[in-house]
Write a structure and sequence with these properties.
Helix content: over 70%
Structural class: mainly alpha
Distance between the termini: 22 Å
Shape: elongated
Radius of gyration: 16 Å
Largest sheet: none
Amino acid sequence: MALVLLSLLCGLLGFGLVVAGIWRMHPPTAMVVAGVALVAYAWRVDRAASGLAALTVARGEG
């Protein structure tokens, strides 16, 4: 569990640093990059959750 939290923390830190670096050059572009990255992250989390739900149903646990 600690590895999952550490991975999430590192991902958020990296996301923030990338957006902050772009913000220093061109703020509107940073907003677009942040929005696209958040949509991609939400899509990825949704795919992971649906895969986990399908695995649970296949095992007969749900």
